[in-house]
Amino acid sequence: MTGAWGGKDRHIVISGGSRGLGKTLVSGLLDAGYRVSSFSRTATEFIQQQAGNDRFFFAPADLSDKSSMATFLKSAESLFGPPYGLINCAAHAADGLLAIMSEEAIRKLLSVNGEGTLRLTRLVVRRMLLAKTGGVILNISSISSLRGFRGMSAYAFTKGGIDAFTRALARELGEQNIRVNSIAPGYYDTDMTRNLNETQKRQILHRTPLGRLGVPEDVVGPVLFLLSDHASFITGQCLVVDGGSTV
Ligand SMILES: NC(=O)c1ccc[n+]([C@@H]2O[C@H](COP(=O)([O-])OP(=O)(O)OC[C@H]3O[C@@H](n4cnc5c(N)ncnc54)[C@H](OP(=O)(O)O)[C@@H]3O)[C@@H](O)[C@H]2O)c1
C-alpha cells in the first residue's frame, strides 16, 4: 500500500497479536507496509508462521506484568526504532453479575484491561515524545462502553475507562501531534465470544442492521484509516464498528 494509506515502514506496537482481532490486525498492518511488534502470553501457530519475517517481532509477555512490558518494548525498539503507533488490543473478558463476581475476576479485569493498558501506553508515549515524530494511539474498546449489557458491568467499567482515557490523552498529546482514538467493536466471532449461546447470538443478529456478527477483517480498514495520514485531523474520537447494532 502506498501514499497516505501506507505504512511507510513505520513501527506499530500491538498488544495481543496472537489471536482474534489482534492476529488479523497484525496481518493487515504487515500487508500495508508497517513494521509490527506484538506480544501475548502465549505464542500461537500464527505467530510461529511469522518466523523469518523481518518486519515482525513477537515476544511472550503479560500485559499485567510491568517488567515484561519494559523488556518487550526495549527489544522491539532495538529492532524497529521508536514506535510510531500503539494499538491497545489485548484484553481480558469476563462476564457475570457483579453481585456474585469473584474478587479474582475483578482483579484480573482491572489489572489487564486497566493498569496494563495504562502502563504500556505510558511506556510507548514516553518513547514517542523523545522521538518527536508524532504518532498514533488506537485503543480497542467495546460497544459495552456505550450501551448497557447485563452481565458485563465489570468489563464495561474497564472499556468505558478506555474511552474516557482516549479523550483525555488526546488533549494531553495533541500538541506533540500524537493522535489518540478508540475503536469500539460490536460482537465479533473470536475466542472472546465463543461462549455465547444460540439464543444470545440470535438476539445480537436481530438487533444488528447488517444482520451478522463481525469478522476480524471488519476492523482492519478502520484501523488502517485511523493510523494513516488520511486521519491526520482526527483525535479523541471513538469509531464504532458494530454493523449498526448500537444505532
Ligand atoms: N470479540 C469481540 O466480540 C469483541 C467485542 C468488543 C471488543 N472487543 C475487544 O477487542 C479486543 C480483541 O478481542 P478479541 O476478541 O480478539 O480477543 P481474543 O480472541 O480473546 O484475543 C485476546 C488477545 O489478547 C491477548 N491477551 C489476553 N490477556 C493478555 C495478557 N494479560 N497479556 C498479554 N496478552 C493478553 C491474548 O493472548 P494470550 O491469551 O496468549 O495472552 C490474545 O492475543 C479486546 O480489547 C476486546 O475487548 C472484542
Protein model, in words:
With 247 residues, this protein is of the alpha/beta class. The chain has one domain: Rossmann fold, CATH 3.40.50. The protein is built from 7 helices and 7 strands. The longest helix has 29 residues, at 103-131. It is globular, with a radius of gyration of 17 Å. The relative contact order is 0.14. The structure holds NADP nicotinamide-adenine-dinucleotide phosphate. NADP nicotinamide-adenine-dinucleotide phosphate is lined by residues 15-16, 18-22, 40-42, 62-64, 89-93, 112, 140, 142, 185, 187-188, 190-193.
Defining key terms:
247 residues; alpha/beta; Rossmann fold; seven-stranded parallel β-sheet; 7 strands; binds NADP nicotinamide-adenine-dinucleotide phosphate
**DSSP helical segment count:** 7
For this entry, what is the oligomeric state of its chains?
Answer: single chain
Strand content: 15-25%
By CATH's scheme, which homologous superfamily applies? NAD(P)-binding Rossmann-like Domain
The spatial strand order of the largest sheet comes to 3-2-1-4-5-6-7
- Give the biggest beta sheet: 7 strands, parallel
Would you list the SSEs in sequence order as H and E? EHEHEHEHEHEHHE
Kindly provide the radius of gyration, computed on alpha-carbon positions and rounded to a whole number of angstroms: 17 Å
What CATH calls the topology is: Rossmann fold
Tell me, rounded to a whole number, the average pLDDT.
96
